[in-house]
Amino acid sequence: MKTHTPIRLGMVGGGKGAMIGEVHRIAARLDNRFALVAGALSTTPERNAESAAACGIASERTYDDFAEMARAEAARPDGIEAVSICTPNHLHFPVAKAFLEAGIHVICDKPMTSTLEDARALERIVAEADALFVLTHNYSGYPQLRLAREMVARGDLGALRLVQVEYAQDWLSEDSGSKQAAWRVDPEKAGAGGSIGDIGTHAWQLARFVSGMVPDRLAADLTSFVPGRRVDDNAQVMLRYASGAKGALWCSQVAPGSENGLKLRVYGEKAGLEWAHETPETLWVTRLGEPRQMLRRGAQTMAGSRVPAGHPEGFLEGFANIYAEAAEAIRAHQAGAPLQTLLPGIRDGVEGLEFVDACIRSARADSAWVEIGRD
Amino acid sequence: MKTHTPIRLGMVGGGKGAMIGEVHRIAARLDNRFALVAGALSTTPERNAESAAACGIASERTYDDFAEMARAEAARPDGIEAVSICTPNHLHFPVAKAFLEAGIHVICDKPMTSTLEDARALERIVAEADALFVLTHNYSGYPQLRLAREMVARGDLGALRLVQVEYAQDWLSEDSGSKQAAWRVDPEKAGAGGSIGDIGTHAWQLARFVSGMVPDRLAADLTSFVPGRRVDDNAQVMLRYASGAKGALWCSQVAPGSENGLKLRVYGEKAGLEWAHETPETLWVTRLGEPRQMLRRGAQTMAGSRVPAGHPEGFLEGFANIYAEAAEAIRAHQAGAPLQTLLPGIRDGVEGLEFVDACIRSARADSAWVEIGRD
Amino acid sequence: MKTHTPIRLGMVGGGKGAMIGEVHRIAARLDNRFALVAGALSTTPERNAESAAACGIASERTYDDFAEMARAEAARPDGIEAVSICTPNHLHFPVAKAFLEAGIHVICDKPMTSTLEDARALERIVAEADALFVLTHNYSGYPQLRLAREMVARGDLGALRLVQVEYAQDWLSEDSGSKQAAWRVDPEKAGAGGSIGDIGTHAWQLARFVSGMVPDRLAADLTSFVPGRRVDDNAQVMLRYASGAKGALWCSQVAPGSENGLKLRVYGEKAGLEWAHETPETLWVTRLGEPRQMLRRGAQTMAGSRVPAGHPEGFLEGFANIYAEAAEAIRAHQAGAPLQTLLPGIRDGVEGLEFVDACIRSARADSAWVEIGRD
Amino acid sequence: MKTHTPIRLGMVGGGKGAMIGEVHRIAARLDNRFALVAGALSTTPERNAESAAACGIASERTYDDFAEMARAEAARPDGIEAVSICTPNHLHFPVAKAFLEAGIHVICDKPMTSTLEDARALERIVAEADALFVLTHNYSGYPQLRLAREMVARGDLGALRLVQVEYAQDWLSEDSGSKQAAWRVDPEKAGAGGSIGDIGTHAWQLARFVSGMVPDRLAADLTSFVPGRRVDDNAQVMLRYASGAKGALWCSQVAPGSENGLKLRVYGEKAGLEWAHETPETLWVTRLGEPRQMLRRGAQTMAGSRVPAGHPEGFLEGFANIYAEAAEAIRAHQAGAPLQTLLPGIRDGVEGLEFVDACIRSARADSAWVEIGRD
């Protein structure tokens, strides 16, 4: 138990009816490292007031406009130290820009921006800002995936050969018309990528996080299965790494029976790893010729854990690990002693958009191999 | 999103080095329904001050003595509305008594007391108090177990025949000497029951919660496997219900490979249910002659959920459901409109101690069948 | 590949409509170590002729009477060398007696006899016979259970503390009236034990096979849930071993959702083992403080395997392992060089009936502890 | 129980040290529908004699040359009615040709031939032969995959959108030098495809068997990871169907921790199916918005079963289902009443080689989409 003064936090987006806003708030609250004190949560003034009140945000710190919020909070002596961005994708860029330029740390949902152009512009802004930028690729907060990364990094698998990653859902199998669904299938709000932006970027980031490698080429086949849908809802992607390693990425939002099926398998010359989101506390490891081992959160790893092995932890705890680590990094930054962390950030964000961009370029070229990040 | 004013909460016990104290704090915080403002967390003044500071409790509301805390907080206009009790078992009774008599709601860890006598005395106190008493049998907060209860209650299984429940751990397989372990194997602090009190009562409560029935007789065989241990670390118990149903309860803290293995199976004339703690979001249901069904949190049930199916939730969320429901009940009580809830309370506590007592009586009589609650 | 002359095999019982007869025939055939050449398969002459023809048995070696078959086959120069007994339980004794006394090796289904008296009488007959007696407790033919036995025997688990075994089915949840069901619930044919004889003896034998220990006392609660049933269809049994180890055995034929759910868990001071029939090729092993290991047939064990890891083997292969080993033993016996094997035999049979007998004695004494084999 | 006269069977290849030969023999024997009476099992006369003796084949029907065997057996009044071909791939064609032209039914291991040219030549021979040709794509013998096929065919899934199939192994992760491995990585014996021929064709056939569709285009990336290996040991393949459905096929022999990991997922507008080889008796089905169902061999399907649900069946039983069905088909053919069956045959074989051929053409064109079967 260490004593921490909670970081003053604001939030943009994530008001009533937004699942991900509540996720950010719980994650921020779980370890008592943040206090939510300001917000521009919803788009209409009435909804906004209502959302803010429900979050316990005082009315004088409830803003109808994010730019005004950035200005006003930067000016207050007790202004927010960090802001969480939970808007639809196309607003991530202007909001992040406003707060970073006001010297306020940013914790931003993914995909980072709706265009690669924005992503690169944001990269330049981050480079010059006196504030941290954290991207909530929350899956990298799972302890067993941190362990997986460590095993790869220290050579337990030998030279890597294969990275198989997938993320399958079924909730967009039909045109549901829900609010959650609506903006995700609208290219003006989500960006040109549908499933590749919404969940493909998670799979992409996770594969990189664990393998330590970014593919240099990909070949993609994108599909929109639901009639009238303007963005992809399924993608088959083949991957090539500079080292000679190969891989595949499959993401889908039209696979009935798939809840939130993120799965990663990494194979090297000497061993293989397997992790699936439905059992996030288990990392399977097999060294060639040896029995399969089941490495468990809380038994083989304790970092990032709140309760011992056998007391299931999951999505919110993994998400909260990102927030807790962001709190550490922010406090260290304020103390002038920047931390080395595993936090996903601006680089992950740019790479995510490079992935989306490359998928679209390849798909337009009838799945030809394209170089990633060399558009 | 509804607007809630957090309930002012105090805590007794649960200071540095106590796993369960942190669990209560996270559960209280998760839904923003409680604010921890006072405490008597540790036994020495220095540790206590340190623990309180780490929890953000002001020094003037940090108490070295729980009785003083009950008095002082009851006298404050902004005094705590509820208290969480996370001490070793033998202190649950005096602490609960002090706060209940001060009109402060109590949220108490289990087993409720260290003796059946205390449990019954507490039952009388609760009956007369103008305050609620909640017992954190947290497993009953899991949505899929609530669903199981509902299915049994509405007759999906037909008349029940069998209740098989078990709770196996391995962390006391050796004499570890850890602080967590120390008081649990000390009959002065834990009570006469070892594993039967610590985890057997959880299994017992859960079987009752789901089946809706309490056995009227049991036959038990208690064992202390670790040399020098003064309480049981393993129990085999056979159960008989008044209806003619039968059952078995096994609890063990010396079963290598068992993390926190709570498992419940209930069988009726028409169908069977199965639930295991390692996959808490899944309830298995089989109707005779039909395929097995996998009922999932977030897909088939949403109550008590924070994120959709496929985003794993677990122990802390289930625990937080008890806290969230306690908050509802407290606010309703304050409004003079008591709620009907599924919250575990004084009855579960008394029954738990009756179970422990019956096990000990049966064990002393060479596993003879004894009546439960008729000592 | 070794050259083997198939052993000439006869069969008593197991005609049309009998599941277990076909299982024995497939098991005998699988490794080409037996040729079925004589039989008394069904009870009426017409059915018998039909059954024999379907098995390719010549009409002159199709017998309506097992005693006549024993005499006639013993007299033929090309007479059967071994006989498989697949009748209802109450006939096992007279049939086995007839063939053993004729010097013909016996492979008998379980439970060995319908009474303990018969079991002991058979034990004396076997002791004097110049023929082998094999009891098809087939589960002990699974490679991973052989591995489990070996690990216990060589001390990998340290001193054993706990043996938890269960065998749950649901096919007798209702009064189905099927032929398979009919004799099993008729005490004149099945013996005094219902589920305890039919599947409890399997669980009992397996626990002994792996642990290497037989309990010396048990306390049992037997129930007949289906109205009108004259034998038990559910049993809760607590076990005590001379060493101080404890255990529990649960068998049930009224547990909806349970197919053929045999499960064994053995815990010692240093490690625990877990095996379940639904995944028979996997043995789970956990040494205290180490990751759980998944030991797989074909990967970590090859003995008793026909195909490599990942090519699922199951019930018939395990059963065939008993037959293959019986063939080895028979040939060795004929060569005057008796083998040491792990084959279940007369001792397992007597112990099985001692288990049934003890359960019934304990149940009559209101679940008092009774000594096993000391009636 | 029906009476069957066993079919007289010969075998070419599959002598000592060949895993697959023993598999064919067990499968042929399991249901007593075949009797092995002739063979040309091994390549040297000594080994051949030894192999034949071990199989109980008389020396006068042990042949050193398959052509001689075809001639001699065709001439005998009691000559073989069918032959099993278990040689390395490149010999499948000449052997099949010899026996088909001799009017002897052929049961051939896969892939059907080592070149597409041979496959097409064989197709013409089969068309003109008065004998059946069965290809042992054994996975289509699993009852739950037959059920899957049926569900797709009757529209339970609605229009299909996605077919994800994979087959991962790890046994060629290193250059082991085993006999099993040696010919599989020799393009002269295996054909131009390595993993795509050996296991990719299985995945391909299975996807077609269940979905009822053959892709019309594919894009493939083939890799040889093990230094010096002359054929692919890993393939990523993207699939396009004429209907607009998409798919992916991954096969690998260098994925540590993968035993024999065949897995199929099929998604339609209304429902999804999932099957994995490690639990072959379970078919998972999810209709959009409904609970996941676990359909079990022996409970929901009985065809192709030998024992009830819960008695695990596996690889050999599935393989034996192909043999049993071949026996039915052969007897019907002999009776002049040809059967409609689901037996894999010449078409599956040609399609398999078309798949291999298309993969190689695509790989040579830097993974361009190529038409399948239009070389």
UniProtKB/TrEMBL annotation, chains A, B, C, D:
Tree of life domain: Bacteria
**Where's the GFO/IDH/MocA-like oxidoreductase domain?**
146-273
Q: Which residues form the Gfo/Idh/MocA-like oxidoreductase N-terminal domain?
A: 7-134
Under InterPro entries, the record lists: Gfo/Idh/MocA-like_OxRdtase_N, Gfo/Idh/MocA_oxidoreduct, GFO_IDH_MocA-like_dom, NAD(P)-bd_dom_sf
Q: Name one GO molecular function term.
A: nucleotide binding
Q: What's this protein's name?
A: Predicted dehydrogenase
